[in-house]
Amino acid sequence: MTTALAASEVTPGVFPQNAKPYGKTYGEWIQEFHRFLFSIPLDQNPFFGNDPGLALVGQSGHVSFILHSPDDPGGGEFNVTIPAGNGLFIPLALAGDGTCPGDPDYQPPPGQTREQLLIEVLDFFMDLVTVLTVEIDGVPVENPFQYRATSGLYTFDADPSYAPIFAPCGTAAGEHVDAADGYWVMLAPLSKGQHTVHWVLTLGPPVNFSGEGIYHITVE
Hints:
By secondary structure, the chain is mainly beta. The chain has three helices and ten strands. It starts with about 25 loop residues before the first helix and ends with a strand. The model has no long low-confidence stretch (mean pLDDT about 90).
């Protein structure tokens, strides 16, 4: 069932969280984002602390992704280029976790499904978000907290360089089962030229993290 949003919660150019932009739900686009994330060799991936001043752009069909380090001190400014006509899927805050079907230490306890186990862990982190603001070309996104979404369970093939992280599962699809939770916005195609996306995020205790990011986006 589709729930209508109040006019005060609609931001032009941002797909509602209950929409299916480009044929996929927000949860399914979260899965595609993580497939892009783990396709990048570990030593080249800014998300894992390598080259924190770098932002990478990926693409799945007619949707682009932006990926940068979540640990840049105080956030950062990033210059990226995306193709005209593409939607843009931006993670504002995210957490992911996984289990290993072949290892008993990664199994949910009796009476709990694997998905319930992972969502319970991810809920803890995402419930800590106390401040979240997003501006697109200076226009605030209304009620950004409405854009929280979960992926459901999914598998993916990772670059072999992630084997130490995924041990004892390995990196092939089916060797681990993952889920993700977070806040995301899917933007409709931006016009050709220059655009700016600015976000601010705070997580309360025990994490006590604050970050701010500015994307200078060239659409060509």
